[in-house]
Amino acid sequence: PIYHSTLPKDVAYILNHCQAEIAFIEGTSQLAKISSLRSELSYLKKIISFDKVSQEEVFPFKKIIKDTPFHLENFQALIGAIDLKDLATVVYTSGTTGQPKGVALTHECFSSEIDALNQIFDLSEGKESLLFLPLAHILARALQFYQLTQGFIQAYAESIDKLLENIKEIKPHFMVSVPRIFEKIYAKVMGDFESAPFYKKEVFKWAVALGKKRSRARQNHQSFSMLDQMQYQVAQRLVFSKLHERLGGRLEFFISGGAPLSQEIGEFFDAANILILEGYGLTETTAAITCNKLDRYRFGTVGPIVANVEIKLARDKEILVRGAHVCKGYYRNEEATQESFTPDGFFKTGDIGEFDDKGFLRITDRKKDLIVTAAGKNIAPQYIENLLKTDAVFSQVMVHGDRRKFLSALVTLNPDALQELARVQNLGSFDYQQLVRHPKIFEMVKKRIEEKNKQLASYESIKRFSILADDFTIDRGELTPTLKIKRKVVSEKYKGILDSFYQE
User: Are 393 and 413 in contact (CB under 8 A)?
Assistant: First the structure.
């Protein structure tokens, strides 16, 4: 699969690297993208479109289905010839350099993941789900295969913009989501709270406090008194019923993945009797390797280990995983495969974690520098930083956005280039600290960043930035001896600026 937002250069790389002979596409923009690359695609022989098209070299999907004879026995014979160890799909994911790597997943990877999900959830044919995740995403793909084995009804949202409208229409029993959706709902609820009259604020605070007390009791398998139960029913009617109504009225639980979920948001939703079960996994692990359960969950963790995998922590606490639904390596990339696995076959996730006393995994840090946005997008910051630094005005750039809804950046400027800009703009005699605060310099830097953004996918573009008064240095601990930015140090030092980018 290829995301519709993938840039043409990455599309060309993926199609050539996997030696694709046929491309299935939807929409005129994707057709234009493929058509513009045709001369670069060494192996592509046929384009099949799900839409009706007039281009002679593009084949309509409906016509191919109509013209191709189907014999059930032939289909069954092909299915029977597949071995679980055979390659099922290659899912390309960005590496730290920004060049896509093809994760090689077998049929066993998916069957193992589905078996693990079966041991966590019991979803009958009468249940309904609404899916809005991109269908190229490993979590969405795993969910679709899981649906085929369970038989529950899978509805597909029309778009993110129509998600709440679709929820009211479908009234799902459960949903799989990324944290950004919960953040939006939470922000709307808290916004309503801030503008509410005093007495409504007091009722809201009482209801949330009571709900959190109930949540703690459930997590610790403790009793909730009859009086508290009666009060909580009142809280449901007065406060939480409106939120349930917005979410269709039948919602039993959410599954959250793709990026870390705020503990505060998880606790708030559970207080409202809407349980969010957070899990953890990667494309390389065919989605979940840990997941909270309906009867066993802890907020701030990604849950206990699921079936069919084993996890251990390296000396530096990196999470290592081995098992049936872990990929066998990277397609046609033996070097990356060797780097990503230990000699005894454990995959190096690049994440740092710890287990609590009950066996729940908590992610504490990211060994890799990959940014995972609130929408679950994996982004390699070095690629964006290096792209910006091709403009001589930039000295250092640190891209920020892990768990955030968009990317921002801290930038420092090259003094010589800055002085030249000042001369061209006739800004007069200013020193470096004065120039970086000058409105005209800010506008010029903004235009240069916007120009670079044109070379990036929308989710990779820089939306907010700040020009720092001083460059990063080794002496202040901001750079390593090899002049690499110490992200944790810089993020802590400029936390106030970074947080201000996301205050609405």
Answer: yes
Closest CA to 93 of 399, 262, 330: 330
Contact by Cβ (8 Å): 311, 305: yes
Q: In the structure encoding, which two tokens stand for residue 273, read together?
A: 């009797």
Instruction: Annotate 23-84 with DSSP letters as a single string.
Output: EEE-SHHHHHHHHHHGGG-SS--EEEESS----TTEEEHHHHHHHS---HHHHHHHHHT--T
Separation CA 282–CA 287 (nearest Å) = 5
Between CA 224 and CA 236, with CA 230 as vertex, the angle to 5 degrees is 100
pLDDT in tens, 192-247: 787 788 999 999 999 999 999 999 999 888 998 999 999 999 999 999 999 999 99
Distance, CA of 2 to CA of 16 (rounded, Å): 13
In tens, the pLDDT along 314-344 reads: 998 999 999 999 999 999 999 999 999 999 9
Helices (H), 87-197: 107-118, 138-150, 163-170, 179-194
DSSP conformation class of 458: G
Are 291 and 280 contacting, i.e. CB atoms less than 8 angstroms apart? Answer: yes
- Extract the tokens encoding 411: 């930038």
Say how far apart CA 308 and CA 325 lie, in whole Å: 7
Strand-pair category, 153-156 with 253-256: unpaired
Tell me the C-alpha distance between 325 and 82, whole Å.
17
- H helix count then E strand count, the chain: 19, 20
Q: How confident is the model at residue 358 (pLDDT cuts 50, 70, 90)?
A: very high
Report helix, strand or coil for 314.
coil
**What pTM value is reported for the model?**
0.78
What does the radius of gyration of the chain's CA atoms come to, in whole angstroms? Answer: 25
SS3 percent helix, strand, coil of the chain, rounded to 5, is 40, 20, 40
Cα(484)–Cα(487) distance, integer angstroms: 9
